[in-house]
Amino acid sequence: MKATAKKSANSKEADSGSLEKVIKELPPDLRQEVLDFARYLLSKRKRTKRKKLKMDWAGALREYRDQYTSLELQKKALEWRIESATRRH
Hints:
The protein is mainly α and about 90 residues long. It has 2 domains: about 1-50; about 60-89, no CATH class. It has 3 helices and no strands. The chain has helices at about 1-25, 30-50, 70-89. The mean pLDDT is about 80.
């Protein structure tokens, strides 16, 4: 397995070398586009890492389970979130 990991790491290095070579061949305006796109990809990756599902709400609607079906409760919860969001703005 170590040989495979080493080979993979070496191929990544080769790929990055090829990437740098290709970028250097681009005109300045296209190099800027590549840089902008790379920054976009990094920011997108950071955003997705931050999003972790919180379960602090679990059981919060327990008191309503006898009044509403699960579908009605989902709709009602959505209404409450919308009302809450509009009050904040």
